User: What shape does this take?
Amino acid sequence: MVKKTDEREAPEVLEQGHIYFIYRPKVCSPGEDEDIAAEDLDDVENFYIVLKPHGGRFRLINIGRKRLPDIEGRERNWGFVEMVADSGKEIEEELQRDTYETKTRGERVRPAARPAGEGVYALVRQGNKMHLVWALELPKRPSPVQKAFNIPEEASLAISIANPEKRGGPRTAQLSEKQEADYPKQLQEEFRARKFATEDPRLLDFEGAEIVFIGARTNPEQAYHIDLQPEQESEGSADIFRQLRFAKSRHPVEPLLKGEWR
Assistant: This one.
């Protein structure tokens, strides 16, 4: 639970919960996924953030360029909400090992996704800006996997959500019109005819929501005067096994526990 350290200066806490960082290795031939581990971003097909707000639904967010933006460089990156689910099991099933047939290459395999980090997060509003703030609980310290994806132990990203009725502007996922979020009229009005909205987290609860992330802070607790209160997690207590139902028999956990590629 987020603890405000200074009531007078703290921004408004809009939402809090658990955050997970997950990657899926590239498509391969049958059997290869059992023998070949990803070793760097070139071996990665997709990188995701999962947000599970307390009392809310799971959001699976596909992150562009397969990494978070550089925080200190105020880099921009984009992403989109690929799936909104009522249970962690639905997310886990989407990220399991999967096989399919192609006309030219025969049977192909999407390897099971691997957890690369878990922690606690908050969405906070400061002025008219919304920020995603997190603190890692696992792994104990960022290692090669986390460094490749730009996942620091704690940081924040500014979030802007694209107006599906105002295409263009800074690069986003550029989803097709059919893939874009279909907001009800009341929520669409949150954009107020602007290209981006930056204040309402409810806009993230729709598949196809396009997001621009901007590196913001490397010291978010100090900057926003909040204490995220991360817990000392271990393999036995990790929320990804309980909340997202990631069975170790299906999802290699070395990246989460040791920060090592798998």
About this structure: The first helix runs from residue 32 to 35.
